[in-house]
Write a structure and sequence with these properties.
10 helices, alpha+beta, 13 strands, about 375 residues, globular
Length: about 375
């Protein structure tokens, strides 16, 4: 926050000042000021602390990686930023931010990038073109290859984190990307002195002001997704990719009883299972076994008809309250292979111990099958 205040000084980027102090409309979504999100994150500090610190490059963008001709070896260059006391997800965050966003912004006449006039920073109704708390731009990334790259990179990161028993890696990745975006904005200054100046020397290949504004808006988007994920009231899973190539519609808040169930599931299953978001389906939450990665439970959180799906058929379960029922034809679009029964949560809101017992039975059956 202090760095952004310097960034918004009169000789730097004063256009950002009112964005810092007020709400922002970005791609038809309304965002609170940055300080509000930072305050929410402080309340969840324990969930954002890395389990350990180690070596990172510190400036891990695509120009600092060299690949061998046969693509079997990668080497780092420009290692003056190397540190031995940092969270390992920082390098992943910088690389994802660089490949998905920075490589999509205009730069001279390079092909495959967006145009500066595609980034609008005043509302169409603002005829006087005065400063406006508004921005609209195409979604990032611009390339299907970058979507595939994110999927592969995050898959490798997930495997590494699971080997460490690191459950909070995705939360910290979102935070690291947001931090990288804000640092990208601050690098458009010649210095970080008391009176920072815009860069003015050399050929102008970029629109510094719009670069700073886009970086800030994308950072707010990620921080909003993170705070909604950490919120006990909303309990919205983090998306599968930080840059999905589309402007995601707002995820519906999870109904309070369902949010309570999700929190109870995490406490009940403990380190035996891992909670996962379902790609492109923010209303679904999965729990899989850590040992065999077998699906145990899927929670359908939509407010109209929340459902708990179990990896067991009703006849396999000890269910004195008869909560578990066979799958319906309407369940086919969301019931993944291996799921064999459903519990309508609206009818079982007061049966939390019985629900958790059914989940524990499904987890035991999954372990036996694995």
């Amino acid at each position: 926050a202090d760095a952004l205040e310097r960034l918004a000084q009169p000789q730097a980027f004063p256009e950002l000042k009112q964005w810092l102090n007020g709400p922002l409309s970005a791609n038809r979504r309304r965002y609170r000021p940055l300080d509000w999100y930072l305050h929410q994150l402080r309340r969840h500090e324990a969930q954002l602390n890395p389990p350990s610190l180690g070596y990172v490059h510190g400036d891990c963008h695509s120009r600092n990686l060299m690949l061998s001709r046969d693509l079997t070896t990668c080497r780092f260059v420009d290692i003056e930023t190397l540190t031995s006391a940092e969270d390992y997800v920082v390098d992943y965050g910088l690389l994802l931010e660089d490949v998905a966003l920075y490589q999509s912004l205009p730069y001279g006449g390079e092909r495959g990038r967006m145009e500066w006039d595609e980034i609008q920073t005043t509302r169409p109704t603002n005829a006087r073109q005065t400063l406006d708390n508004f921005i609209a731009y195409p979604p990032f990334p611009r390339s299907e290859a970058v979507l595939a790259f994110q999927t592969e990179l995050i898959g490798g990161l997930r495997t590494y984190a699971e080997g460490l028993g690191d459950e909070g890696w995705q939360r910290r990745l979102w935070l690291a990307i947001a931090r990288g975006l804000l640092l990208l904005a601050s690098r458009q200054l010649t210095s970080h002195t008391i009176e920072p100046q815009r860069r003015s020397r050399g050929p102008r290949y970029v629109n510094d002001t719009k670069l700073v504004q886009v970086a800030y808006a994308e950072a707010l988007r990620l921080l909003r997704e993170l705070t909604e994920h950490l919120s006990v009231r909303k309990a919205i899973p983090l998306p599968a990719l930080p840059f999905p190539g589309e402007h995601r519609a707002p995820a519906a808040a999870t109904p309070a009883p369902v949010a309570a169930l999700i929190n109870a599931l995490g406490a009940s299953l403990g380190d035996r299972a891992e909670r996962r978001a379902v790609a492109e389906r923010p209303y679904l939450t999965d729990y899989v076994t850590r040992s065999g990665q077998r699906l145990i439970v899927r929670v359908h959180t939509q407010a109209a008809a929340p459902v708990l799906y179990l990896a067991a058929r009703p006849e396999q379960l000890i269910d004195p309250q008869h909560l578990a029922a066979p799958l319906l034809a309407d369940d086919a679009p969301v019931a993944a292979p291996g799921l064999g029964s459903r519990v309508a949560l609206a009818a079982a809101a007061q049966a939390m111990p019985a629900l958790l017992d059914l989940v524990a039975q499904a987890q035991q059956l999954a372990d036996l099958a694995g």
